[in-house]
Structures are given as structure tokens and as C-alpha cells.
Amino acid sequence: EVFADRLEAAYAARSAAEVWIRYNFFIDNMPTDDVQQLNRDQTDWLKDSIRTATQTNSTPEQKEVEAMLQEVQLDFARAMNKVTFDAHVLRTGDEDPMKRNDVLEAVLAGRVAEAIGAVPHKSA
Q: What is the pLDDT of residues 67-96, one digit of tens each?
């Protein structure tokens, strides 16, 4: 019986992991070219923060700052794609192939579903 319980738990964990892998795959493979980017003020603030927040006595080189800024821009674009994807899944009809039960479950677990009002707000 213990083995059966462990096997059942492992199967459930694997199914949940597959859902999240599929969900993140969809978001990671959305194009980022036409997605909103950080504006000039935000990038200037980030550059200043990177330069002043270094642990060492020397300031980071320009290419290091640009590499960090590029990574932040990519994360920001991914976050915008996630919002777009979640909103699309929540607003489309049941015939949409993206609205499969497992993908919908992943979307409903996120903050976009709360913001749109698809699920009640979680108390923090």
C-alpha cells in the first residue's frame, strides 16, 4: 500500500511538472519583437542601479552593464508575453486548443487570472 501511494504521488507530480513545462514552453517560444519594452527612463534607472550596486570597488564595464540590461529586457518581455498568453487563454472560448484543462489549470494558478477576476484574490 505504501508503494502504491508513493507511485500515485509520483505520477501526480509528474503530470503537474508536464503541465508547467508545457505552459512555460508556450510562453518562452512566443516572439518578443513586438512586445512592450522598458522605456528610456526605466533603462537609465537600471543602468545607474547596476553601476552603484556592485560589490566590488570598481565599476562594471559598459558591456557588462549592457548584458545585464539585455537580460532584464528579455525577462520583462517574457513577463509581458505571460500576461498576454494568460489573458488570451482566460478570454477565449472552450474551442481554443490552448484552453485545454491542463494549460487552463496553470493559467488559473497565476496572478493574471486574479487581476482579470477569473479567480478570487489570494491573501498574502
A: 888 899 999 999 999 988 888 887 776 676
pLDDT at 7: 95
pTM comes to 0.71
Q: How many CA atoms lie within 13 A of 31 on its CB side?
A: 2
- Return d(Cα 45, Cα 77) in angstroms, integer: 18
Amino acid in the structure at residue 20: W
Q: Is 23 exposed, middle or buried (0-12, 13-18, 19+ CB in 10 A)?
A: buried
* Dihedral pair phi/psi, residue 4, rounded to 5°: -65, -40
Longest dimension (CA), the chain: 61
Task: Tell the residue number behind the cell numbers 472560448, with chain if given.
Answer: 93
CB-CB contact of 64 with 46 (8 Å): no
